[in-house]
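Holo prediction. Input below; ligand is LQZAQKY5.
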Amino acid sequence: MIEKSEKTPDQAIAELAGRIAPVASETISLANASGRILSQPIHADRDSPAADVSAMDGYAIRLDDLGRDEPLPVSGEIAPGHPTPDVQPGHAMRVFTGGIVPQDYDLVVKREETQESPESIRLLPATANCRKGENIRRQGENASQGSAILQAGTTLHAGAIAATANFGASEVHVSRVLKITILVTGDELHDVDAEVQPWQLRDSNGPTLNALLSGKNWLHVRCVDRVVDNQQGLAERLAAAIEDSDAVILTGGVSMGDYDFVPDAIGQNDGEVIFHRLPIRPGKPILGAVTAAGKPIIGLPGNPVSAAVGCRRFVLPLLSRQAGKRDWLPPAPRVMLDDPGTRTLPLHWFRLVQIDDQGGVSLVPSKGSGDLVSMAASDGFTEQPPNSTGPGPWPFWRWQD
Ligand SMILES: Nc1nc2c(c(=O)[nH]1)N[C@H]1C(S)=C(S)[C@@H](COP(=O)(O)OP(=O)(O)OC[C@H]3O[C@@H](n4cnc5c(N)ncnc54)[C@H](O)[C@@H]3O)O[C@H]1N2
Ligand code: MOO
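Structure of the complex:
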């Protein structure tokens, strides 16, 4: 009998992560780069802003003209997208948000704090507290030319895309999209639309894992296949999956039963087992392996809650790491449980919880790792270390961010 490893979840993840080969990179258009992971940093090609610019629609003036009662003549305007006209001493200049403020001016007053005439303005009392530099965004205050804006490993979210576009990177170097195969094993499994007998089951793990891995542009689930409990058939299907994918995720067949063929199928494919059985509940029989080429193969237990927890807690960070993400295992936010009870376990304990609209976190009553009805009512799970009690704070893993 194989003894369970005493590795913590993080130790098991780190050990397997250290054996995984990151995918290669490719160059793509920024227009197609949303959600992809940078493999090279982005640098500022010029200062941001590129010049002193106005933060408001208004008038550029000199400090000496503040507090002046008589009208201030306006010599011209700085229209967006046009170079600045010549500056005239003793005059204000109309300026629009984002327009360049020439060096001769000290500040910008908002137009609603002036009384405007076609050729001149009067400063209203609201401008009395204005200071030098008021409403001017200084050249380079966001970043100076040549500085690093985004590090390799950053996911190109909307904010990162904004900076990348601003600094002229119309093409970006990103990690190639990870190709994943999901294999669900078990003779009992049938399609979701099947008429099932009491000894049969509709496959829910395939759709669950597919959902947990969906919405990520750096990852593509190329197929979710069912495989029957047959040693040779499973080994062959796994060989093909390893061949045409970067990672293979299996569910079921990883425990002690006579029909649990996953460990042997991984062995037949020269997979090296890094961990098998961890001191966790649910999901204890989880198996993490790696091929000689550095592709992960993760065998998740078949019970629906075990498969989902294992995917969220183990598979997602490992795939993030393989895809080149910098923060591939960010610490989970911590939450306090409303009513934790007094029970303890000598295991790392993942407990289904729901969050109410006040932010309160409560345990979802559950019959165990087969109870997918309780999982349906949960927002994620907390994680508490062996023999711990109390409300926390415990790390909280939300099903989907
Ligand atoms: N003698 C022992 N028996 C078991 C142990 C043990 O330590 N000693 N561990 C138990 C634990 S804990 C778990 S978890 C399960 C995991 O076993 P397997 O990974 O081998 O999973 P299966 O036996 O194939 O399936 C378990 C359960 O889940 C249902 N299942 C499987 N696949 C799906 C799917 N795609 N969709 C929905 N439901 C699925 C399956 O029908 C079973 O009911 O082992 C315990 N046994
Ligand atoms: O560890 Mo199993 O996942 O409890 O049923």
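The first strand starts at residue 25 and ends at 29. That is the main takeaway for now.
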